[in-house]
Design goal:
Blueprint lengths: L10 H10 L9 H14 L3 H9 L13 H13 L9 H15 L5 H13 L1 H11 L9
Helix pairs in contact: 1-2, 1-3, 2-3, 2-5, 3-4, 4-5, 4-7, 6-7
């Protein structure tokens, strides 16, 4: 019987950091590094990747929980639908704002939440990213 691999909450941040050429600073904690990598990705407009790096889970991971990448992605879309970001000058803080907005957007029977769920459910996260880009006036986020 194969044992399930132990979850490493920092592995995704290190994976994206390697791809981006970001190195962990001397004395920088794993949490600080994860936050910094997530902020760099968020600033680049790579919202899905930013939330994957922050949570350590892929957007389609069934075990991501209530504050996993999809909460952050929902929150980013909800903010875009309002025409704002809560912390536009601080991408690391924006990650937390995305998650908080996403958790709130996923509570209750909100029509915007139902619309977002339908978009993501039917077309996948890239459709949600297309929606964000459309609401931003066509600004494209960099692709990997």
């Amino acid at each position: 019987m194969t044992e399930k691999a132990k979850f490493n909450p920092y592995a995704m941040a290190h994976e994206y950091a390697e791809y981006l050429g970001i190195t962990q600073g001397e004395g920088e904690t794993e949490d600080a590094f994860k936050s910094r990598v997530s902020g760099v990705l968020r600033k680049k407009g790579s919202i899905i990747e930013a939330h994957e790096a922050f949570s350590g889970r892929r957007y389609d991971d069934e075990e991501q929980g209530a504050t996993g990448p999809m909460a952050g992605i929902f929150g980013a879309v909800a903010q875009a639908m309002q025409g704002r970001e809560y912390s536009p000058s601080d991408p690391e803080r924006q990650i937390g704002d995305d998650i908080a907005a996403g958790v709130l957007a996923q509570r209750g029977e909100d029509p915007a939440k139902a619309a977002l769920a339908a978009i993501f459910g039917a077309l996948g996260p890239s459709a949600g990213m297309d929606l964000i880009e459309g609401l931003r006036g066509g600004k494209q986020s960099p692709k990997k």
